[in-house]
Each structure stands twice: as C-alpha cells, then as structure tokens.
C-alpha cells in the first residue's frame, strides 16, 4: 500500500476520534507535491564551532499526561482530549494502534504526539501537533513509513524545521521548513509549507537554530560496514531572510 493511501487511512482514523464527546478539527501539512512548488533550502558549510554556538536548548517540555485506563488525557482550552494510548502488543489486526505522547512545546502552544497504525502488516506513523488552546490536530505528513523526527521550533516560534532520514537509503534525508501562524483561526491549519531540501549525500543528526531566521544542520555520512561503521560529521547553515520576505 502506498504512503499516500496509508496517510488517507490514518487521517480517516483521526476523523472518527472524539474529544469530550465532540470531534476535533484536523489539518495535514507536509505533502511532497506542496513542497515541489516551493523554494529549495540552500546550505553552506560551516564549522563545528559555529554549530556549538547555536542554541542547544530543547524547547520540548515533558509534563506527565493523565492516563485513564488505556487513554491519554490532554487538557486544552477547548476541553479535554481523550486519545487511545499506543499499544504495540503483537498479533493485532491491521488498523489504528494509538498515540505515543512526546511532550509539549510552550513556544508553539502544542502537544507533540505520534500516531501509529498498521496496514498489511506494515507499521506506519505520523507526527501530530495538538494545539493546547483549540485542540486542533496539525498532522505533519512523513515522506516515509515512519513519523518525522521531533520538529525543532525557531526561538520565536514563527518557524518549525523537521527532518526524516530515509530507512532504506543510506546517507539520505529530507528536511522540511514550516511557517507557523497565530492560533486564532480554527478554520485553517496553523502550519504551512515554506521550503524543503532533500539529498542522497548525507543524513541528519541534529538541527539547531542559530537565531530566529537561520539554523545549522549537523549532518553525517555513514562510513564503513558492520562493526566498522563510523559517522563522519559535516555542518551546514541556512539563512531564511530572502524566502521569508518573499512569502510574507
């Protein structure tokens, strides 16, 4: 089954979930065809010293959610959201497996969770940011079978960078950059695609924001085989001023 069909299936499962007896809105962002019509992120090489100057502060906090039997309870300004807890026990039928709680981004006012499902005995997952004010689910569609890595918000919360290292292609990755809107309008997604990058030359180890408009990628290439595998690191910087100005 293709990733697109599975994504549609997953979104269908979202649509039938309820919170406090009422259905919540869901929006999806990160589709490849949307990024195809947008600018490519351009990088230049920098040093490890430059990377270490960038903020290493993890903006994700980990408040412990309430667990009610097999459900995760998340408080929002629009009522409590009840989510089926992830169950990875074997020998289950295809379908929705539940949610895995990752934490809370104060700068985004969003909870981070991963949704899991199984189709034709294959595991699929997606990263989801749930707005703590509106309870709206913002789904970051993955370019692969598994969810993207935890997103990395800019210091001011205007942008979100995220990445995915391809499982079946060594030294290859996708990087997406999203623009974040204020959370007042519940009729549209708070996140929108801004620009992206992909390569078969290296994978991502970490992303750090240098300031509100530039970030550094700690990239690597895997050298050797078996017990001789070793990561060789290289660092890349991008600045967003031009693209942000064009898209404002």
Number of helices: 4
User: N-to-C SSE series?
Assistant: HEHEHEEEEEEEEEEEEEEH
Describe the global form.
globular
How does the major sheet shape up?
5 strands, mixed
- Specify the helix fraction band: 10-25%
Largest sheet, order of strands side by side? Answer: 1-9-8-7-6
Q: State the end-to-end CA separation.
A: 38 Å
Residue-averaged pLDDT: 86
* Strand content bin: over 45%
How many β-strands, per DSSP? 16
Classification by helices and strands = mainly beta
**Domain count:** 1
Report low-confidence residues grouped into runs of 5 or more: 8-22
Rg result: 18 Å
List the helices and strands and how they pair.
Elements: H1 3-15, E1 26-29, H2 32-36, E2 44-46, H3 48-53, E3 66-68, E4 71-76, E5 79-84, E6 95-105, E7 110-119, E8 122-131, E9 137-140, E10 152-153, E11 159-165, E12 173-180, E13 191-199, E14 203-211, E15 214-223, E16 230-239, H4 241-247
Parallel strand pairs: 1-9
Antiparallel strand pairs: 2-16, 3-4, 4-5, 6-7, 7-8, 8-9, 10-11, 11-12, 12-13, 14-15, 15-16
Summarize the structure.
The protein has 248 residues and is mainly β. 12% of the residues lie in helices and 45% in strands.
Structure description:
The protein has 248 residues and is mostly beta strands. The protein has one domain. The chain is 12% helix and 45% strand. The chain is built from four helices and 16 strands. It has helices at 3-15, 32-36, 48-53, 241-247, and strands spanning 26-29, 44-46, 66-68, 71-76, 79-84, 95-105, 110-119, 122-131, 137-140, 152-153, 159-165, 173-180, 191-199, 203-211, 214-223, 230-239. The protein is globular. The N and C termini lie far apart (38 Å). Mean pLDDT is 86; it is low at 8-22.
């Amino acid at each position: 089954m293709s990733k697109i069909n599975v994504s549609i299936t997953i979104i269908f499962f979202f649509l039938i979930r309820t919170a406090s007896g009422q259905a919540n809105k869901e929006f999806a962002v990160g589709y490849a065809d949307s990024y195809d019509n947008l600018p490519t992120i351009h990088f230049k090489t920098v040093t490890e010293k430059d990377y270490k100057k960038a903020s290493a502060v993890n903006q994700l906090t980990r408040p412990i959610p309430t667990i009610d039997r097999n459900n995760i309870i998340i408080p929002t300004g629009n009522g409590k959201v009840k989510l089926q807890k992830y169950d990875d026990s074997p020998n289950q039928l295809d379908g929705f497996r539940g949610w895995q709680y990752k934490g809370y981004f104060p700068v985004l006012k969003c909870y981070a969770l991963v949704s899991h499902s199984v189709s034709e005995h294959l595991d699929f997952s997606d990263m989801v940011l749930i707005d703590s004010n509106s309870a709206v689910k913002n789904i970051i569609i993955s370019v692969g079978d598994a969810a993207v890595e935890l997103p990395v918000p800019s210091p001011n919360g205007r942008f979100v960078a995220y990445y995915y290292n391809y499982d079946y292609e060594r030294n290859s990755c996708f990087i997406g950059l999203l623009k974040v809107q204020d959370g007042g309008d519940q009729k549209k997604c708070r996140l929108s695609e801004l620009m992206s990058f992909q390569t078969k030359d290296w994978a991502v180890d970490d992303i750090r924001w240098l300031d509100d408009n530039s970030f550094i990628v700690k990239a690597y290439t895997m050298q050797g085989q078996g017990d001789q595998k070793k990561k060789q690191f290289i660092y890349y910087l991008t600045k967003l001023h031009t693209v942000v100005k064009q898209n404002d």
